[in-house]
Specification:
The protein is α/β, with parallel strands linked by helices and about 160 residues long. It has one domain: Transcription Regulator spoIIAA (2-Layer Sandwich). It is built from 6 helices and 8 strands. The strands form 2 sheets. A 5-stranded mixed beta sheet has the order 1-2-3-4-5. A hairpin with a 4-residue loop joins β6 and β7. It is globular and about 50 Å long. It starts with a helix and ends in a 7-residue tail after the last helix. The N terminus is likely disordered.
Amino acid sequence: MASASDLMTLSWRIKERADFTTVEFSGEIDKNTDFSELSTRLQGHVVFHLQQVHRINSCGVREWVNFVRELPNVEELTFSHCSPAIVAQLNMIYNFRGAAKLRSFYAPYICDTCNIEVTKLLDIETSFPNRGENEPPEFNCERCSKPLEFDDLPDHYLAFLAEA
C-alpha cells in the first residue's frame, strides 16, 4: 500500500510515438521534484499530459519554470489536459508555460439540482474559437439534463486564454 507521501510525489510516464512523445505527469510538484533526468530524455515534439497534477507549491513553480525553459532537445512543447492546479499557475505565473502551446484544460462546473461538481475537458481551439471572449461552453448535467453552471468566475479562471 502506498503512503500519503508517495501519492504526492510527482511521477511521470513517457509514451513514445512516431511523431511525438507524451509525458503523463501525476502527483505534486514541489521543491523535491527533480526534472533533470526527464529533461535530457525529451526531444522533438513533446506533449505534457497534466490531468493528474493536483498541486504545485511555490518552490515547485520555480522548479517547473526552470524545467520548461531548459529543454534543450525539444522543438515543440504542448500542454494538454491541464488540471485546475495547472490552470491556476497559468493564470498567476507569466512564464509558467514557457514556449508551450496550450491544447486543452479541465474546467469546473456544478449542477445545482443534483448538487454535484463536474470537470469538463475543454479543447481550446474548438471551445474558444474567438480568443479574448472568455465565455465557457455550455453543458447539461448527465443525471438530470439541466444546464450545468460554470463553477468559477469565467474572466478569472479563463484569463490565461488571452496569452494562449
